[in-house]
TrEMBL record:
Matches recorded under CDD domains: GST_C_Tau, GST_N_Tau
Residue ranges constituting the GST N-terminal domain according to the UniProt record: 9-88
Major localization listed first in the record, in broad terms: cytoplasm
Location(s) in or outside the cell: Cytoplasm, Cytosol
Source lineage: Eukaryota, Viridiplantae, Streptophyta, Embryophyta, Tracheophyta
Family: Belongs to the GST superfamily.
Assigned EC number: 2.5.1.18
Organism of derivation: Paspalum notatum var. saurae
Record field: catalytic activity: RX + glutathione = an S-substituted glutathione + a halide anion + H(+)
Sequence ranges assigned to domain GST C-terminal in this UniProt record: 95-216
First-tier enzyme category under EC: transferase
Function recorded in the entry: Is involved in the conjugation of reduced glutathione to a wide number of exogenous and endogenous hydrophobic electrophiles.
Protein name: Glutathione S-transferase
Amino acid sequence: MAGAAKSGHQLQLLDFWVSPFGQRCRIALDEKGLPYEYLEQDLANKSELLLRSNPVHKKIPVLLHAGRPVCESLIILHYLDEAFPSSAPLLPAGDAYARAQARFWADYVDKKVYECGTRLWKLKGEPQAQAVAEMLDILRTLDGALGDGREFFGGAAFGLADVALAPFTSWFHAYERFGGFSVEEECPRLAAWAKRCAQRPSVAKNVTPPEKVYDFICGLKKRFGIE
């Protein structure tokens, strides 16, 4: 699908600065202690490398491992765990049920949060009200999945589901502003979890500050002519 980029790094990540999907991959790479080269992409003028590496979807993130592309963020997370099993596994070893639960919640986040959040800031009137109600239901479901006394979705260990959701914590501020709700008031366990995640170096380093995410969305609204 793609030839190797000219670099001394075995791992390269084609990404876009504010993408929560790319940030998942950056968090996972740092959690696993894997050095990589970050290759920022212009999504308005997609590079030949990106188009060669992901000819099906033509989007980021793409992980290049010795020049071979791996596409889609959750697939990249699974690939990193399989390709580098000795470094800080994202999935618990020796417990198939716990691994299945982690995959379930990572998949839930993947299917629900971003798409609903996009409708929340793009729409007006009743359609937006429906998006707000759906977002609150999603967040409350995640709050319930954390349960009482659990530090992370898998228990004491920061793992796959946490990596999948952590980048979206910086989007919560925008969702709150456009949706007129408070995550801390509606989902206190989820808000506390977000604060714990923010203390991890891998998250603090790679997740865009909430105000910058909000400004980015405001720029999108202006570009699309959304008042």
